[in-house]
Design goal:
The protein is mostly beta strands. It is built from 1 helix and 11 strands.
C-alpha cells in the first residue's frame, strides 16, 4: 500500500490530530470542533475543525460514524459528503450538515463523522443500447433476509 501526504490545517490547538484507529478501519474519525445544541427538527452545519489539500485525482468521502445516530439522534443531511481536491483554500473548512431528530447537545470533541480518500472516477463514455443480459428481477429483488 502506498502512502499519500496531505496538507492539513486545524481550526485551533484543541482539535485532536487526525489518526487511524489502530487496525480497525481505514476510515479516519472526525470530531465536532464546537459544542452544538440542537432542537428536534433543526439543521446545522457542524464544524469539523479541519481543512485539507487533497492530492490531485482524489476526493474525500465523509459519512456519519455508525454510532452517530444512536448517540446523538442526528442524520447527515446530504447522506454522504464529497470533498474534491479543489476545496482547499484557507477558509474551506470541512463541516457536517446535520438534521436533529431529537433535542441534543453535541460536545466539542465528540466523534460524529468519518472520512476516507478515494481516487476520482475516470472519464467515462456512455453508449446507448438495449440491455440484453439476464435481469435480476429489478429493484429490491435480492430478498428480505
Amino acid at each position: 500500500m502506498t502512502s499519500q501526504t496531505i496538507k492539513i490545517q486545524y481550526l485551533d490547538e484543541s482539535i485532536p490530530k487526525l489518526t487511524y484507529i489502530g487496525g480497525k478501519s481505514d476510515w479516519i474519525d472526525l470530531a465536532a470542533a464546537e459544542t452544538v445544541t440542537l432542537k428536534a427538527g433543526e439543521f446545522k452545519l457542524i464544524h469539523l475543525g479541519v481543512a485539507m489539500k487533497l492530492p490531485e485525482g482524489y476526493e474525500a468521502h465523509i459519512a456519519p460514524r455508525s454510532s452517530t445516530f444512536k448517540n446523538f439522534g442526528i442524520l447527515q443531511a446530504n447522506s454522504v459528503g464529497v470533498v474534491d481536491s479543489s476545496y482547499c483554500g484557507a477558509n474551506d473548512w470541512w463541516k457536517m450538515p446535520v438534521y436533529a431528530t431529537r433535542d441534543v447537545t453535541i460536545e466539542k470533541g465528540s466523534r460524529i463523522a468519518q472520512f476516507r480518500i478515494m481516487e476520482i472516477q475516470p472519464k467515462i463514455a456512455f453508449i446507448e443500447t438495449a440491455l440484453e443480459d439476464k435481469d435480476r428481477g429489478g429493484f429490491g429483488s435480492t430478498g428480505i433476509i
